[in-house]
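Tokens as discussed.
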């Protein structure tokens, strides 16, 4: 189950990064996007912390 949380956290990080690059390319922030990015960061960190209950830090964080 920890690996599922780890993969989901990684997907959220990639999505957040792509969303940030897209906003930077457009040159402006749209109203709902900063809120979505905050939710993605909170979700990613939460899932990472849940997966680190089982996986060691050296394995969980780099992935």
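Sequence:
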């Amino acid at each position: 189950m920890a690996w599922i949380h780890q993969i989901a956290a990684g997907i959220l990080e990639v999505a957040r990064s792509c969303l940030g690059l897209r906003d930077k390319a457009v040159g402006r922030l749209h109203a709902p996007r900063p809120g979505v990015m905050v939710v993605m960061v909170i979700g990613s960190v939460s899932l990472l912390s849940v997966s680190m209950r089982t996986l060691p830090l050296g394995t969980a964080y780099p992935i």
